[in-house]
Amino acid sequence: MAIDLSELIDMRDRLILARGKGVKVVECGRERIEFRSDEQMAAALGDLEVRIRRATGTSLTSNVVRFSSSKGV
Q1: CA 57 – CA 68 distance, rounded (Å)
Q2: How does pLDDT run across 10-44, given as a tens digit for each residue?
Q3: Is residue 72 part of a domain?
Q4: Which residues pair with residue 25 across a beta bridge?
Q5: How far is CA 30 from the centre of its chain?
Q6: Could you give the percent of the chain with pLDDT greater than 70?
Q7: What angle is formed at CA 20 by the lines to CA 28 and CA 10, rounded to 5 degrees?
Q8: Which of 18, 56, 65, 71 lies 20 to 30 Å from 47 when distance is taken between CA atoms?
Q9: Which residues have a Cβ under 8 Å from the Cβ of 9 and sit 6 or more positions away?
Q10: Which of 47, 45, 61 is nearest to 12 (CA)?
């Protein structure tokens, strides 16, 4: 069962707010999730970001800008 994009974004936003407040317990609907460390929260946020990017079709790699210059000679 795939999770809806809006639900993924809501879960990410709730987790970001909880992490910012220093809260280790997050409730999503009927589910209660307790994190033991900030590293676990960071890993969960990273996973949600990847899932959101996949759902929106956004590239997982960063964009690279390359410059090429010459004197025009």
Answers
A1: 29
A2: 989 999 999 999 888 888 778 888 989 889 999 99
A3: no
A4: 34
A5: 22
A6: 90
A7: 30
A8: 65
A9: 52
A10: 45
Which domain covers residue 16, as residue numbers? 5-56
Question: 28-58 burial by CB neighbour count: b if 16+ within 10 A, else e?
Answer: eeeeebebeeeeebeebeeebeebbeeeeee
C-alpha span between 36 and 40 (Å, rounded): 7
Q: How many residues does the chain have?
A: 73
Domain contains 68: no
Pairwise CA distance, residues 63 & 72, whole Å: 27
CA dist., res. 62 & res. 51, Å (int): 16
Give the separation between CA 66 and CA 11, rounded to whole angstroms.
36
Residue 50 within any structural domain of the chain: yes
CA contacts within 13 A on the Cβ side of 53: 11
pLDDT of residue 62: 61
DSSP state of 25: E
**pTM for this model (two decimals):** 0.69
